[in-house]
Every structure is written in structure tokens, then in C-alpha cells.
Amino acid sequence: APSVFFDVTIDGEPAGRITIELFGDVEAGASRFAQLAAGQQGVDYRLSKFNGVLPTYIRNAGLNKLSYSATEASPIDDLDSIDELEAELDKQQRRHDVAGLVSLIVREKDARPIKERLVARDGKLITVLEQAGEAPNGTQFAITTAPSPDLDATNLIIGRVVEGNELLGRIAALPVNKPRNDNPYFVAGKAMGDKRAVTAERAFYRPFLKVVVSKSGLLGAADS
């Protein structure tokens, strides 16, 4: 099975390498992940951040855009579409039942709040509906540090860590921005779709030190 690697820095200092063996029976997911790790035409995981250190997994923020310029089509297969990933998730037999599993975030756990906003159009005020936050684009991923059954419905398992467990443990132990789910103002703001609450929630579990992919690629390639 093909393998990919991520060289990681913590607070700007080289911290080591995570090597991931991809599963051959999740073709769309493994292929997408491998292409993003290999970095075709500048669309890759390099400089992406591990922006979430949660109790049972760490999360990579993925890519904001799947093309490297506004006018170019994305060089990766299926472009922005995650239909094939959703189809594989629907058939998924594996479970997030051990540490070291790597999975693409395909669906959202909770529906994002919808908020009404008044905008002026052709001299009239009209109401538009906005959904807070952004939908997954099939590039964000998680690596389990313990069984994580809550990911089974949303994440497509595409591989497992074969090297770098010590580094994963170091990332998992970093101090993080604690969630504020017990704050009534936050809970009310989130229910209303208040952007400040959605922005605040995005920062939950963010490590205080920057954890960044400095280099990624396919193993066996010349640059490994």
C-alpha cells in the first residue's frame, strides 16, 4: 500500500515525521489524500496547520482552496466535489476504534446555524439566509489518539499511522484553548448563528503553539 509522510514543526522547530500507510479499499479517499500530500501544482498540505488537539484525536485544518489561483481548475481528482467520499463513507465498515487511524472529514457533526441578514439590492432591503462557517471540502483530516466513535458518522478512514507515534503523543499533550460550552452567552449566540460564537468555537481546542506541516509527500518519491 502507498504511504505518505508529513514533516511537522512545533513553534517553528522541526519536531519529526508522521508516516501514514493508506488503505487500498478506499480508492477515492486514499487517492485524494495522496495527491494532496504529493502536492500537485501547489495544491498540497504544506504549511497546513494542526489546529485542533481534542481529547481523542488531533485535527488538521486542511486547505481553504483546492486550486492555486482563482482562474485555474483544481489539479486534484474530483476537484471540489466530495460526492465520491460521501459514497465511500456510506459504505464504511471500519470504525474509529483505535489510536493512529487517519480519516478525512467528509460530513459535519452538527448542522451549522442559519441566520437571516438584511441586504440592499436594487434599492430594496431583502432578507438573505446565511449559513455560519464553512462546509468540509474533503481536505481536513483527523488522526485518532484514542478510540473516537463520534467520528464514525462524519469521517472516512483512509489509512493508519505507521511511524511517528511519539510525535503524535507530543502534539496531543500540548496546552490548548479550552471550550466554553458552559457559558450561557456562548450557547445562546451559537443557537442564533451569531458569527462571534461560531468564530469562538473554531478556536476551541486550538493549541497555543503552532503545529505546522513543513513538508509532505509520497514515500518512495525522490524527496523522501
* Helix-strand string: EEHEEHEEEEEHHHE
Tell me the distance between the termini: 16 Å
Oligomer: single chain
Overall pLDDT score? 84
Number of helices: 5
Enumerate the spans where pLDDT stays under 50 for 5 or more consecutive residues.
none
CATH architectural group of the largest domain: Beta Barrel
Number of strands: 10
Structural class: alpha+beta
CATH-defined superfamily of the largest domain: Cyclophilin-like
CATH domain class name of the largest domain: Mainly Beta
Residue fraction in strands: 25-35%
> What name does the CATH topology of the largest domain carry?
Cyclophilin
Strand order within the widest beta sheet: 3-4-8-5-9-2-1-10
| Number of separate structural domains | 2
The gyration radius over C-alpha positions equals 19 Å
Approximate shape: globular
Largest sheet: 8 strands, antiparallel
Helix content: 10-25%
Protein name: Peptidyl-prolyl cis-trans isomerase H
Keywords: Isomerase
GO molecular function: peptidyl-prolyl cis-trans isomerase activity
Pfam family, one: Pro_isomerase
Describe the structure in your own words:
This protein is of the alpha+beta class. It has two domains: 3-174 and 209-219, Cyclophilin-like (Cyclophilin, Beta Barrel); 177-207, no CATH class. The chain has helices at residues 27-38, 83-91, 165-172, 184-192, 195-202; strands spanning 3-10, 13-22, 50-53, 57-60, 101-105, 114-121, 124-131, 141-144, 155-163, 211-218. The strands form two sheets. Strands 3-4-8-5-9-2-1-10 form an eight-stranded antiparallel beta sheet. A hairpin with a 2-residue loop joins β6 (114-121) and β7 (124-131). α4 packs across α5. The radius of gyration is 19 Å and the shape is globular. The two termini are 16 Å apart.
